[in-house]
Amino acid sequence: DIQMTQSPSSLSASVGDRVTITCRASQAIRNYLAWYQQKPGNAPRRLIHAASSLQSGVPSRFSGSGSGTEFTLTISSLQPEDSATYYCLQHNIYPYTFGQGTKLEIK
Amino acid sequence: QVHLVQSGAEVKKPGASVKVPCKVFGYTFTDYYIHWVRQAPGQGLEWMGWINLNTGRTHYVQNLQGRVTMTGDTSTATAYLDLSRLTSDDTAMYFCAKEAPDTSQLGKPMDFDFWGQGALVTVSS
Hints:
The complex is a heterodimer of chains A (107) and B (125). Chain A has 107 residues and is mainly beta. Chain A contains no helices and 11 strands. Chain A has strands at residues 4-7, 10-13, 19-25, 33-38, 45-49, 53-54, 62-67, 70-75, 84-90, 97-98, 102-106. In chain B, a hairpin with a 4-residue loop joins strand 7 (68-73) and strand 8.
């Protein structure tokens, strides 16, 4: 199975900060990588697909990049509503696998 | 407008089975695979498999083979997840998710663009 390793596991940042979350795959997955945001009690919400394509309706402060084995999710100017847990998902090879999650807290 | 609607919560005893429904709205039921993902309390997301609602073909994660069955009822546009021989390790929120369109039309495995709200299954004696 492909292992997806997210870093950091948690972080705390201030409103307006630039935040970057990294996801590393144990083998190349082309650009078959999506990012999801999950708030407590809610289902995950798709933010980024195909590594860098912004999902319709998602604020443009979210962006994704990468290909192969290393990927990043960047929030350019953190907002209070961005407090959540973020997951990456590889869908190149079965079984699909998620990263372990990054819990983002607003200071 | 696409919606995936799941029912609330179930409590089951160890060794029992559970059937979790997921009713879809807003698109043609058989056009997209439905995937199932679960999340144990306080834990991360675990992909369980998919069903092709056009053909009934399924693909399950290896560690659930033999205990999981995914089906679909086209008359009610409802997908189902059946999980048998439940243990406390199966206590989790179970999400259904619609596979996103493959705009390249190359048959690529896709991620999920819409999710149900989840159904909590608690296994307890």
